Known about the structure:
The complex is a heterodimer. Chain A is an alpha/beta fold. In chain A, 34% of the residues lie in helices and 25% in strands. Chain A has helices at 63-70, 88-96, 114-124, 129-142, 158-169, 188-203, 215-221, 239-246, 261-268, 289-298, 313-321; strands spanning 23-34, 37-48, 52-56, 78-83, 99-102, 176-180, 207-212, 224-229, 232-237, 250-255, 274-277, 282-286, 305-310. Chain A has a six-stranded mixed β-sheet with strand order 5-6-7-3-8-9, sandwiched between helices. A four-stranded antiparallel β-sheet of chain A has the order 11-12-10-13, with helices on one face. A three-stranded antiparallel β-sheet of chain A has the order 2-1-4, covered by helices on one side. In chain A, helix 3 (114-124) crosses helix 4 (129-142) and helix 8 (239-246) packs across helix 11 (313-321). Chain A is globular, with a radius of gyration of 22 Å. Helix content of chain B is 70%, strand content 2%. Chain B has twelve helices and two strands. A two-stranded antiparallel sheet of chain B has the order 1-2. In chain B, helix 4 runs parallel beside helix 8. Chain B is an all-alpha fold. At the A-B interface, helix 2, helix 3 and helix 4 of A face helix 1, helix 2 and helix 6 of B. Chain B: Residues 36-265 form the ABC transmembrane type-2 domain. Chain B: Belongs to the ABC-2 integral membrane protein family. Chain B: It holds the Pfam family ABC2_membrane. Chain B: The chain crosses the membrane at residues 36-57, 69-91, 125-146, 152-175, 187-205, 235-258. Chain B: This is Transport permease protein.
Amino acid sequence: xxxxxxxxxxxxxxxxxxxxxxxxxxxxxxxxxxxxxxxxxxxxxxxxxxxxxxxxxxxxxxxxxxxxxxxxxxxxxxxxxxxxxxxxxxxxxxxxxxxxxxxxxxxxxxxxxxxxxxxxxxxxxxxxxxxxxxxxxxxxxxxxxxxxxxxxxxxxxxxxxxxxxxxxxxxxxxxxxxxxxxxxxxxxxxxxxxxxxxxxxxxxxxxxxxxxxxxxxxxxxxxxxxxxxxxxxxxxxxxxxxxxxxxxxxxxxxxxxxxxxxxxxxxxxxxxxxxxxxxxxxxxxxxxxxxxxxxxxxxxxxxxxxxxxxxxxxxxxxxxxxxxxxx
Amino acid sequence: xxxxxxxxxxxxxxxxxxxxxxxxxxxxxxxxxxxxxxxxxxxxxxxxxxxxxxxxxxxxxxxxxxxxxxxxxxxxxxxxxxxxxxxxxxxxxxxxxxxxxxxxxxxxxxxxxxxxxxxxxxxxxxxxxxxxxxxxxxxxxxxxxxxxxxxxxxxxxxxxxxxxxxxxxxxxxxxxxxxxxxxxxxxxxxxxxxxxxxxxxxxxxxxxxxxxxxxxxxxxxxxxxxxxxxxxxxxxxxxxxxxxxxxxxxxxxxxxxxxxxxxxxxxx
Lengths: 327, 268
């Protein structure tokens, strides 16, 4: 396995400083508007080579708009953007030649066989036929699709289509792999298969950039992530650092009858560092969940259901935005 | 294993094919096994030729066209040649493009690669032309076998049909980028039918009264029909160049619009 970034063009991969890996994505004050609607409202990014970087946020946070700008298929409305050291406004084809893109919706070629999907896609990159063919076979093996090679796309399950889309995005051996909600809509088993594949790619040194509204996905795959809300970045860091900074160690979840949560919250808000009221439960942020639960019982409250757990990125998001990630 | 290695090897071994040919290759792979698909395009003008040119033609005495006496079948055949080039181009550049654009999201995937909108537009038009060209050669052979070709100029009728195909593919693809639903395609049919019937395909332009004749002379299929007819009957003059320029210009304008519209729709 060679370094993911080793280009003949010396201007193509500038270094952030004299040390450290080069910056593959650099954005300053990046904005995107569609008419009156501002989808991305001035964000700064710096993603070095080899990192697995995530955008975490609910639907409509501006993740996909940002991803499309990074993929050099959507011109920024304002701000500066450099992908692989190049300006997407002037070097779109050169940038896209070195990207792998897995869009949110499958855009597989339904008129071609599964193997031809890979081969033809390789040809779009200008790769010779023999090269496309050998890479296609290699990718089919890696993503466990070789038995389906001659079949049409419709015969694949949702998880397999996703795998094929990711396989397709690797046909040009990209320096930077962009994954827009790679596992949305998949069943848990298919998600785990995919995570395994992405983790292997990461180990091979591929720079991954992904969006997700699943906090477990972000925790599993991302070295570093930004939390986006309403077109802005509201927090940035490693999953662990974010949890440490914006949440407590543990959370005690209490479920009472419908409509009681608001009034009960006032009776126990001194038991935790912070209490969040959700329509269906109370979240008590505390360093010792069991201890807090015992105190709740001491006050004579009998919740219908109880859960003591560690803090997750979901809690970070809730704290920062006052809303949950998945509606 | 090494699924991902350096981009170096990739850039060193680039194929020499131009980007638009990659689109052509994709379409070839999709259609290489569908024989019916190829047969229909070939049969359409042949059936018209037999029914109208030969069948109806028996009731029509040979008449004078551009100063020479031609049989009705020899008059209609080049009309069918041009009209089928138009029909093929329209079919390829409307329904099929709309499906790829709106439903299959093919171009979204293609534009995520180094391919540009102009490569997509050129590629799709080239594909339509290649297909149309094969049909034209086939039809010309049928004309030859039936003794309906009067001049060596007829060899140039094939590039002439390609011009017709280019002009109509480009403009119809441009129109397709504005379509909002399948219903909008009724408008295409509404436009194509009168062109097919009244572009001096089945009867000479001299049958039209004054002003109407001028209107017909300005329509695109008429330029194609008259060009093909001049070539297969050997009545080529400098005036034929007008048709060539007309069709080239129409195609180039369409191509420019398609590239811009694909950009506006997909690279937002």
